[in-house]
Structure to design on (216 residues):
């Protein structure tokens, strides 16, 4: 799955991970395991202070790979759940500052993955939602545990119970997005936030993140 993920570096302090698994960045087991490997590598790199995740396609991610899921037996399904859990936990527990750039559809597992980042920047054409209950399941990759920490308990219940999809302005009003910008300006905005953070003490920023996350 490494041919579906690209890693680039900017001035030794910022790493950019781009996903491009056509057509909609469906989250397969292989993609998740590769993404986890990249984050583990970057988490141990003392020169890297910020990790940015973005999509090179028209959409961020429409969620889990349902075609892959449809042919899974119980053992395969358990492996898939473990892949989601371990990948998302590695992202969430990263000692780096993490920024997720979201364009187009960000649904289901894709939206759950974005919750693991410190910041989410949305494009003006982005659509966010957790449609799982409409399919008779729940956001089982951490959405029920992470969403309310970002948009509040009652709002999270409304988002999940209704399975509604929200446009960028609505998602911003709920504080799901830190910023919303034109699609072509997402990376520029992410780099601007990164450079503001990089002006500050590496130890101070890292310890502040640890304290905030642990306290929360």
């Amino acid at each position: 799955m490494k041919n579906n993920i690209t890693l680039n570096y900017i001035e030794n302090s910022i790493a950019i991970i781009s996903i491009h698994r056509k057509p909609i960045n469906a989250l397969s087991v292989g993609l998740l395991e590769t993404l986890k490997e990249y984050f583990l590598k970057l988490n141990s790199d003392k020169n890297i202070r910020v990790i940015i995740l973005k999509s090179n396609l028209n959409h961020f991610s429409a969620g889990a790979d349902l075609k892959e899921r449809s042919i899974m037996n119980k053992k395969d399904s358990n492996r898939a759940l473990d892949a989601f859990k371990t990948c998302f936990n590695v992202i969430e527990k990263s000692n780096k500052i993490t920024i997720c750039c979201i364009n187009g559809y960000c649904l289901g597992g894709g939206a759950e993955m974005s919750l693991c980042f410190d910041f989410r920047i949305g494009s003006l054409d982005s659509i966010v939602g957790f449609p799982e209950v409409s399919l008779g399941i729940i956001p089982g990759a951490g959405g029920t545990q992470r969403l309310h920490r970002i948009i509040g308990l009652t709002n999270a219940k409304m988002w999940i119970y209704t399975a509604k999809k929200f446009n960028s302005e609505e998602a911003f009003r709920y504080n799901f997005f830190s910023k919303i910008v034109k699609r072509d300006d997402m990376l520029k905005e992410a780099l601007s936030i990164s450079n503001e953070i990089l002006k500050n003490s590496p130890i101070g920023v890292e310890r502040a993140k640890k304290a905030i996350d642990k306290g929360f």
